[in-house]
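Quick start: read one record
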Amino acid sequence: MEHQTELILIRISGIDRPGLTASITEILSRYKVDIMDIGQADIHSTLSLGILFKCAEEVSGNVMKDLLFKASDLGIDLRFYPVSPEEYETWVNMQGKNRYILTLLGRKLTAEQISGATKILAEHELNIDGIRRLTGRIPLDEKKASVRACIEFSVRGTPKDREELQHQLMQLSASLSMDFSFQQDTMYRRMRRLICFDMDSTLIQTEVIDELAMRAGVGDQVKAITERAMRGEIDFKESFTERVALLKGLDESVMKEIAENLPITEGVERLMYVLKHYGYKIAILSGGFTYFGNYLKEKFGIDYVYANNLEIVDGKLTGRYVGDIVDGKRKAELLQLIAQVEKVDIAQTIAVGDGANDLPMLSVAGLGIAFHAKPKVVENARQSINTIGLDGVLYFLGFKDSYLDERGRL
């Protein structure tokens, strides 16, 4: 005769201590039960443990009795919930389907921000499976340097309208001073391998051509051309050619002085250290100049630099460039080319930039992140970081502060 079985869910809460989970599972092991699912979370030493198990019907009463005695000894709360085979099958059929990760990031996170984000998820009939904090414990003194807060939601379901959900999250983040990322939770998301950065106003907090122009005494003229390009009156190639021509006669030594004093963006050193430590390939794809890209390459151990070459004759800039211009279209092509060389699936790539000429590579990459970007770029990018430094990228990749060693936490 076939034994009847029962499915039972137990939920345990109370003050955590070493050996608590071992005590509970030791009782279950006596009765040879099968564990169907288990999950545990610990918030400020308060334990929340759930175990779904299957056992023979004739022993279920003894299992529950022994567990209740142990819970009383340990001073914890333990509750039982029977689960029907139909409920279990429904749960099984939902596994692995349409999973997403919503990441919220900012200098601090408030109840209003979390309420707004979770309300949007609910409106799109998405269920939250889990919540975890990626940043370290938040100090009470908000004025301390490098304070940031990041929470990651594991979400399941099918959004009613993915584009509308994205738009709502974007509006919420803009109004409540936070950043967000909404990504499909696939194996590729957990196995990113190549990251490509714009340089000017991304890795560094300046536009090098403006620095060169100021030293050449043509700062206002170059700025005027840049503004014309931003208004769409001239394209990038035409504006680039005009601006470079104005640098004619500038001494090569000026480039060295600028390179040695580049204002590095907040979080770059920490980000580069972690990416290198975990084996990422790193590229600079820039509409700026190779000279400065190579300086950063040496400083941070970057693997690839593609930018524009200024022609130098007898130690002076000629006002011309050498080779093809790296524009937006070329950046996207280079990202795909490097991915092929490194045998990396395009879904495993990341692109980070701030300008309109970064949009093509942001859209082609598996994860495109607009960083302190122009409004048009933020509107067209699926992820953006505006509230903290460039190391915020790490949280969109799923890194927790606790994964990183002391140097990585700098």
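The mean pLDDT is 89.
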